[in-house]
Specification:
The structure holds two protein chains of two kinds.
Chain A: E1 4-13, E2 16-26, E3 31-35, H1 42-50, E4 57-62, E5 65-66, H2 72-78, E6 80-83, H3 95-108, H4 123-135, H5 151-163, E7 169-173, H6 181-197, E8 201-205, H7 209-215, E9 218-223, E10 226-231, H8 233-238, H9 240-247
Parallel strand pairs in A: 3-8, 3-9, 6-7, 7-8
Antiparallel strand pairs in A: 1-2, 1-4, 4-5, 9-10
Helix pairs in contact in A: 3-4, 3-5
Chain B: H1 6-20, H2 22-25, H3 43-66, H4 74-90, H5 95-117, H6 122-143, H7 145-148, E1 154-155, E2 178-179, E3 182-183, E4 187-192, E5 195-200, H8 201-222, H9 224-234, H10 236-240, H11 246-271, E6 274-275, H12 282-295, H13 302-316, H14 322-328, H15 334-344, H16 352-366, H17 370-382
Antiparallel strand pairs in B: 1-6, 2-3, 4-5
Classes of the chains: A alpha/beta, B mainly alpha.
Chain lengths: 251, 399
């Protein structure tokens, strides 16, 4: 029984069957990659996990509880944090403020009215945010206006914002899309480090096979909305069905 | 000091100083001189400066922090005024219960209107608030005449019950609002040479309340709540996926700014105990938007500056007439004098809106950060020598 159990999920958009009978089980403390060609339904599946979309049929259980019908902020409070394909950060705020918001969200829940006390006086949360920034090597940028940073830094900040919440499950939507090779390798190293240091389950959607094969312990291949195979990276590499559907000559 | 950092504390002290010495600062020209009409140091106008300052400070908590542009905030101002006048009629002429009830009533209205309007964002939110405000205006103007006085407005009468006042006189003058015996209209005039300075109790009462309101707004800006509101403006999607529910935060900001508007309305009624439906009209809602943008959206001091600027122009420029213009340009040859006066005439008197429009356009185009940005640029220009402190404390924006 994995931490995330997707059972018989179907999702239609008009005449298009975006997801058909998707079954997926992500084991606790593993790194599970979901790959597939464009239009395979990877993003639709992800959106069903975080509450942005509701599947037509089927169930999504996280940590023994159903996530269906819950809003994105409720699902986050259950312990799922999500990194977007294009970094989503608070561009008008400084890096430190960006880090503090997830800290407040973890401590105070989805709403708390602290209108009078000063942000400066929240020493404990500031320490928490600072040590996370140190972990991702961004402490020198703590007072920077976050919109003015490079894309790679924004991605790292977003990752740090998710990690400071100590999520049980981290969802990554193409974390290296549009990155240079060096940045991609940095991200891989960062994720490996994160994986070693804490008890965290990672589910990753990725196009870049280099990233997938260096991180994932299990891989699910989606094609036309249905899981084709699920196996270890070694077996996926040589799998004839996968070659046919997705990897083509690149494998 | 007061839980503020050094910069905010000095800003608060500067504002307190300006407000305390306003009767001097706003009356720089001697009585009887040609420039005396530019003096703004008379009680009625000074009261309006601080009252609209409160209104704009509150509006800025919603618009400046969350980016939700309410186009119906005058409704809360009107509701506050009506509530205050009713307290004068029923309870006593003491302003404290009137102001408290004004704030509570406006808060309750804001809760209902905000709950519905905040289901949408952007232009749809603005239109919803506008619709609610116009509905309130229409109700106050006609349907609810027994409560609001309809077209004539709500006024005090000699035979009002005023249950807390022992001598409910049915003869003599209608009592005036006061605070434990001190009347709001009490004034003390100080003559220095050819200058006359007026110190009005009502003004100082409003000024103290404005300073409290300003202090609270600084605390809100610097609090985790204020940070969440800025996060809502910046990226609501990220906030949602960070485990925060934006709706109650925006609703709280809406109610708080509605209460500020109610406070301003209650103070207006305390200075002059009548309330009319025109206070809720949509132009009044638009005015506070202009004040905030003119001064600087999302800055601490900006809304107060914007409110002062607009009220000054409304009262001073509108008083200039063609005779005064002819007086100014009398030194020019006749034909030229007439030409100059004809050219300037559309911008004065009833045409002050035209001047305001031009000023507003210039500010928005050249100083998108409002007067605060202008002040910052000036400070940078003159303060370059002080390399360690390039920004003047009085013009520091919130972010």
């Amino acid at each position: 029984m994995g931490i995330l159990e997707v059972k018989d999920v179907n999702k239609r958009f008009g005449g298009l069957q975006a997801l058909g009978k998707v079954n997926l089980s992500v084991a606790e403390n593993s790194c599970h990659a979901i790959i597939g060609p464009n239009g395979a339904g990877k993003s639709t599946l992800l959106n069903c996990l975080v509450g942005k979309l509701i599947p037509d049929t089927g169930s999504v259980m996280f940590d023994g509880q159903s996530v269906l019908g819950r809003t994105p902020f409720e699902i986050n409070q259950m312990g799922i944090s999500r990194v977007f394909q294009t970094p989503e950060i608070f561009g008008d705020l400084t890096v430190m403020e960006n880090m503090l918001i997830p800290c407040f969200a973890r401590r105070d829940g989805s709403f708390a009215l602290h209108g009078i006390r000063s942000v400066i006086s929240e020493a404990e949360l500031r320490d928490q945010a600072e040590s996370m920034l140190e972990e991702v090597n961004m402490i020198d940028k703590r007072d920077m206006h976050s919109a003015s940073m490079s894309r790679g830094d924004k991605r790292r900040l977003e990752m740090a914002m998710c990690l400071v919440q100590n999520p049980k499950l981290l969802l990554l939507d193409e974390p290296t899309a549009g990155m240079a090779r060096a940045d991609t390798n940095n991200t891989i190293d960062l994720l490996k480090e994160i994986k070693e240091k804490r008890n965290i389950t990672i589910a990753i959607i990725e196009h870049d096979m280099h990233v997938v094969f260096s991180l994932a312990e299990r891989i699910t291949v989606l094609a036309q909305g249905t899981p084709l195979v699920e196996d270890t990276p070694e077996n996926i590499k040589g799998h004839p069905k996968v070659k046919e559907a997705y990897l083509g000559e690149a494998a | 000091m007061f839980g503020l950092n050094k910069k905010d504390a000095s800003l608060l002290l500067i504002v307190a100083g300006l407000v305390a010495f306003a009767p001097f600062l706003l009356n720089p020209f001697p009585e009887g001189s040609a420039m005396a009409q530019f003096n703004a140091g008379y009680p009625d106008l000074m009261q309006r400066f601080v009252i609209f300052g409160i209104f704009a400070i509150g509006f800025n908590i919603l618009f400046g922090l969350t980016g939700y542009l309410s186009f119906g905030h005058a409704a809360f101002l009107g509701v506050g005024s009506y509530a205050a006048v009713w307290m004068f009629k029923l309870l006593s002429m003491n302003v404290l219960p009137a102001i408290v009830l004004a704030v509570i009533t406006a808060g309750a209205f804001a809760l209902i209107i905000g709950y519905v309007s905040l289901r949408r964002s952007g232009i749809y939110f603005s239109i919803l608030t506008l619709a609610f405000a116009q509905m309130s205006f229409a109700l106050a103007y006609s349907v609810l005449t027994p409560i609001t006085g309809g077209e004539t407005g709500l006024q005090l009468a000699l035979d009002d019950p005023r249950i807390l006042e022992s001598a409910s006189a049915s003869e003599g003058n209608i009592p005036v609002p006061g605070l434990f015996g001190l009347e709001m209209r009490d004034s003390f005039e100080m003559v220095m040479g050819s200058w006359v300075f007026t110190f009005n109790f009502g003004y100082y009462f409003c000024a103290v309340i404005m300073l409290i309101a300003f202090y609270l707004s600084i605390r809100i800006f610097r609090s985790p709540f204020g940070m969440m509101l800025r996060a809502i403006k910046s990226n609501q999607q990220r906030l949602n996926y960070t485990g925060v529910n934006p709706r109650p935060y925006t609703l709280a900001a809406f109610v708080i700014s509605g209460m500020y508007a109610g406070l301003a309305g209650g103070l207006m009624a305390s200075m002059d105990p009548l309330a009319g439906a025109e206070r809720m009209f949509w132009t009044a809602s638009g005015e506070v938007v202009l004040m905030t943008i003119l001064g600087g959206v999302g800055t601490l001091i900006g809304p107060v500056l914007g409110a002062g600027m607009i009220k000054y122009m409304e009262n001073i420029i509108s008083k200039i007439n063609s005779d005064i213009l002819h007086g100014w340009f009398a030194f020019l040859p006749d034909g030229l004098e007439d030409l100059v006066v004809t050219m300037i005439y559309p911008f004065i008197g009833k045409g002050w809106h035209l001047t305001l429009g031009i000023v507003f356009m210039l500010v928005v185009i050249f100083l998108p950060g409002g007067l605060v940005e202008g002040g910052q640029k000036l400070a940078n220009l003159f303060g370059r020598k002080k390399a360690d402190n390039p920004k003047s404390a009085s013009t520091e924006p919130a972010e």
